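Risk register update: the risk of archive-format incompatibility is retired. Evidence:
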Amino acid sequence: MRHDPITPQRAVGYFGASTGAAAALIAAAQLGDVVSAIVSRGGRPDLAGPALHLVTAPTLLIVGGNDRPVIAMNRDAQVWLRCHNELAIVPGATHLFEEPGALGKVAGLAIDWFKRHCAQRVCV
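Archived output:
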């Protein structure tokens, strides 16, 4: 994408859910400054292991308020992340965010995060 003449100035934002969030964090750790922002929804950042130390992109961790084990995993991950990071808890939501309006809240949080951290360039 960085070498395509249509997209060279675009920022890269990663969004990962559940175990896919660990994959997004590991990929971002490997790519360094190429990734401008990361959003993890109901993520398992614990599966990213030592790669958490290498993540440089601002990272938003979104967890359902009723998903207590994953809340704990994400709080633990915040200690290991050396980049700017925040934990957003969606009240009343479970792991899959199946409750009415829960995914809409996730979308709003993700959009705001990407807008804030990709302000100089458009995230794709």
